[in-house]
Design a protein that fits this description.
The complex is a heterodimer. By secondary structure, chain A is α+β, with helices and mostly antiparallel strands. Chain A contains 11 helices and 12 strands. In chain A, the strands form 5 sheets. A 3-stranded antiparallel sheet of chain A has the order 3-2-5, with no helix packed on it. In chain A, strands 6-8-7 form a 3-stranded antiparallel sheet, with no helix packed on it. Chain A has a two-stranded antiparallel ribbon with strand order 1-4. In chain A, a hairpin with a 2-residue loop joins strand 7 and strand 8. In chain A, helix 2 packs across helix 7, helix 6 crosses helix 7 and helix 8 packs across helix 11. By secondary structure, chain B is mainly beta. Chain B is globular. In chain B, strands 3-5-6-7-8-9-10-11-12-15-16-17-18-19-20-21 form a 16-stranded antiparallel barrel. In chain B, a hairpin with a 7-residue loop joins strand 20 and strand 21. Helices cover about 5% and strands about 50% of the residues of chain B. Classes of the chains: A alpha+beta, B mainly beta. At the A-B interface, helix 1 and strand 4 of A face strand 3, strand 4 and strand 21 of B.
């Protein structure tokens, strides 16, 4: 008995990891760093991870008073796409002359408030659009793409006659944002690449704006309180912002999953014209993170704006984008969306599409031909195509 | 404050050292087993040591463990933990006036709490007065939480992560008992200082009553001036077991300050039911379930739920009683705990889908009691924890081994 007990104890001690849940396959997860970070970069990644996923804001450390979410991780669970619970609402007007509602809380609605405060409401006559929080993965690769690489696929006048144009969103730079080397400008405006309308220049702007507009946290970059309109002391340090920016830059790109029929699906993807906007491959330029510099990656996006037709025209715009123009969303990781959206799909810019097929069928404008081509496929071909998309 | 505590610890340790020199100075206080004991009697149902003829008795318990847990393939490795060192000091000021205190050091000296320090005035079996720092009688575990009484290394999740065990506060109240044949009926009710707005504004990112334990000022001043009412009734039959029903409610927010109105009064209410029995097979069953409602402002976030519930169900089956390694009255038990907590009951306004933020846990194991006051435990824990959106559960599992003993 005693020997048996001791023996059993030793077995447990030696094999305790065997009795623990196994790690999911890397291709089942969106979070985690890109491989090849240095030890110092790993440390900064971990700091950013804690700030992004673990730090919760309350009224004691600056939440609000008006806000949308209480932490970064609330909107991007597992670094994946968000849920309607944390979907943002932006409001403005139909023209591209700049947001007219900045003095009444625009461009973003903070529809929640700490006790004692009243949340914002959409001003009369303002137009609005809802934005589902995007997945974070691979953002560093997108950030490291040169403007020339993006412009290589732009075809504003549809010179090739394929019915697809693709234009950059030309935006004004925030004062604190540093322009990329070899940036291309047009009338003093720069190419945006992040956000549903590609109205954000880089991940510093994205991070500082999200702290401010989503959580109500001021920083030295975005010091104006969204409720009072006054300049506040920073409620988050530059160090934390920089760590979060690094974290976002260093997140790995989604890894393809071994779905069946993906080769035939990929062929169909190209044949019916999806790849004209959902550009399969891009290449990064130089980057301060060696692990993502000068690498090929597979976002399935051209990061340009396209006319998506009247059914996706919300009457709201940002930068030089028209109300019906949307940035091509990267399709990588789309198959994992359900794992961060509560077991369901909420696709397209506002989550209105509840399946990949529904998202395809909502394509209009420049996407109408591809949609028609999809509709003409057999059921078996449609299944293969969707399996391919789910494998990205 | 810390210095005073260290002095108390030093004194108690000196007494122990003295006992090593001459153990005849110490004697175990006899426990009265003739009465039907309830969970609410737990603070007095402990082994005490009295020293010579001093009218003071001391005691305590200690618990330490090793664990190796992993979550979705990531483990912190081997962890050795000194979870608690608890000291009791009791004295009879007169025949019907008693003092009892409980001082707890958690995780070394990371948390030092006076969990109980009250004076009892016994007027009549049905009417007694207690004042000081009391343990609010919500559920059963909050009052009956000593490590050596439980076969599981972790405290129940519902007791510590939904209810705030050990939750104690400053206040006054009444308690009493009525014995009739095989039955005992009892009640307790207290008015104490209460919770604060950290229950809906905390680092857990969910409605979390235990967050108010961070407010050390609660032993000095009420957060909002409104007393917290806690009340419990319990009934026990010698053959059937014990059933307890309890309630705890009050106002948690600061609705005015310096005469200025800041918000409306926001209430929280908790109901709990507990039951324990011993089957004819000798199987011990213990369970406690609780339901909480919190008035969360509608303009706040559904991240913080307005309804919560959860509980646990323990099964302890003695499998043999015999001498083991010279411990003549050893008992070995097969044990299993089932736990469930949902911190956010309700549906999303945006989709109408269920809000999750819940955990399911199963803890099988074995325990060995070399004597009634000491337990050595081996637990295997498996948790499935789901985030607010209901994404695939993160799984945590692993072994825990440790002991807990009165001294």
């Amino acid at each position: 008995m005693n020997r048996k007990t001791i023996f059993a104890g030793l077995i447990i001690l030696a094999a305790c990891e065997e009795f623990q849940p196994k790690a999911p396959q890397a291709y089942e997860l969106l979070d985690g760093p890109v491989s090849g970070l240095s030890e110092a970069e790993n440390l900064q990644f971990l700091r950013g991870d804690v700030a992004f996923n673990d730090e919760v804001f309350t009224s004691a450390n600056g939440l609000g008073p008006l806000f949308v979410a209480t932490s970064c991780g609330s909107c991007h669970p597992g670094d994946g796409k968000g849920h309607p619970f944390t979907t943002l609402t932006r409001f403005g007007q139909t023209d591209e002359n700049g947001n007219q509602y900045l003095n009444v809380g625009g461009p973003q609605l903070q529809h929640r408030a700490i006790p004692g405060f009243t949340p914002e409401v959409i001003p009369q006559n303002a137009t609005l659009s809802r934005f589902t929080p995007p997945a974070n993965t691979g953002l560093g690769f997108i950030d490291a793409v040169s403007d020339a690489e993006i412009l290589a696929w732009a075809d504003p006048d549809d010179n090739d006659g394929d019915g697809i144009s693709g234009v950059p969103n030309w935006i004004s730079l925030k004062q604190y944002v540093k322009e990329r080397p070899n940036s291309v400008t047009q009338n003093g405006r720069y190419i945006g690449r992040f956000g549903k309308k590609a109205a954000t220049y880089d991940l510093l702007q994205q991070t500082a704006t999200a702290y401010n507009q989503d959580i109500g946290i001021t920083s030295s970059f975005e010091p104006v309180d969204t409720h009072s309109g006054l300049v506040f002391d920073p409620e988050v340090s530059n160090q934390t912002i920089n760590d979060v920016v690094f974290y976002l830059k260093a997140l790995k790109a989604p890894e393809p999953r071994p779905e069946s029929n993906s080769i035939e699906g990929k062929q169909l993807f190209t044949t019916i014209g999806c790849s004209k906007c959902h550009r399969p491959e891009m290449k990064t330029g130089n980057s301060s993170i060696a692990a993502i510099a000068n690498k090929a990656f597979y976002p399935y996006s051209d990061f340009l704006l396209h006319d998506m037709g009247s059914s996706l025209d919300d009457g709201y715009t940002e930068g030089s984008a028209k109300t019906y123009e949307w940035r091509t969303p990267p399709l990588w990781g789309v198959g994992l969306s359900k794992k961060s959206q509560g077991g369901q799909y909420f696709l397209l810019h506002d989550g209105r599409a509840r399946s990949i097929e529904e998202a395809i069928l909502l394509h209009g404008g420049e996407g109408i031909q591809s949609r028609s081509n999809y509709e003409a496929l057999t059921n078996e071909e449609k299944t293969k195509l969707i399996r391919f998309l789910e494998s990205l | 404050m810390k210095i005073s505590l260290l002095i108390i610890v030093a004194v108690v340790m000196c007494l122990n050292v003295t006992a090593q020199v001459d153990s005849t100075l110490f004697k175990r206080t006899q426990q009265d087993t003739s009465k039907l004991l309830l969970n609410m009697d737990a603070v007095y149902n402990r082994p005490f040591l009295s020293v010579s003829k001093l009218p003071v008795a001391v005691g305590g318990y200690v618990e330490a463990n090793w664990q190796h847990l992993g979550t979705d393939g990531v483990s912190e490795g081997h962890q050795f933990q000194m979870r608690r060192l608890t000291l009791f000091v009791a004295s009879s000021i007169s025949r019907r006036i008693k003092f009892l205190s409980e001082l707890e050091f958690e995780d070394g000296t990371k948390e030092i709490n006076i969990e109980f320090a009250s004076v009892d005035f016994e007027f009549h079996p049905l009417l007694n007065f207690r004042g000081g720092i009391v343990m609010n009688p919500i559920g059963a575990f909050n009052q009956n939480h000593d490590g050596p009484k439980w076969e599981f290394i972790d405290r129940p999740i519902s007791a510590t992560q939904l209810l705030p065990a050990t939750w104690s506060n400053v206040g006054f109240g009444l308690y009493g008992k009525l014995y009739k044949n095989n039955w005992v009926y009892a009640y307790e009710t207290y008015l104490t200082n209460g919770f604060d707005d950290q229950i809906i504004s905390n680092n857990e990112n969910k409605t979390f009553l235990p967050a108010s334990k961070l407010n050390k000022d609660r032993f000095e001043e009420s957060f909002n001036g409104v007393p917290l009412l806690t009340a419990k009734v319990a009934i026990r039959n010698k053959r059937i077991g014990e059933l307890g029903l309890s309630y705890m409610g009050g106002v948690y927010n600061k609705f005015q300050e310096d005469g200025l109105v800041l918000d409306e009064k926001r209430k929280h209410r908790t109901w709990a039911i507990d039951f324990n029995t011993v089957l004819l097979t000798g199987t011990y069953l213990t369970t406690e379930w609780t339901y909480t409602r919190v008035d969360v402002p509608s303009s706040y976030s559904q991240q913080y739920g307005d309804k919560q519930w959860g509980g646990f169900f323990d099964v302890v089956q003695p499998v043999f009683r015999k001498s083991i390694l010279g411990f003549e009255r050893s008992v070995v038990n097969a044990i299993c705990r089932f736990e469930y907590v949902d911190w956010n009951l309700g549906k999303f306004l945006e989709t109408g889908d269920n809000i999750h933020e819940d955990i399911v846990s199963v803890v099988p194991g074995i325990s060995w009691r070399p004597n009634a006051q000491t337990v050595i435990r081996l637990n295997y824990r498996y948790n499935w924890q789901t985030d607010i959106l209901g994404n695939p559960a993160s799984k945590t599992a692993g072994f825990q081994f440790g002991f807990s003993s009165y001294f």
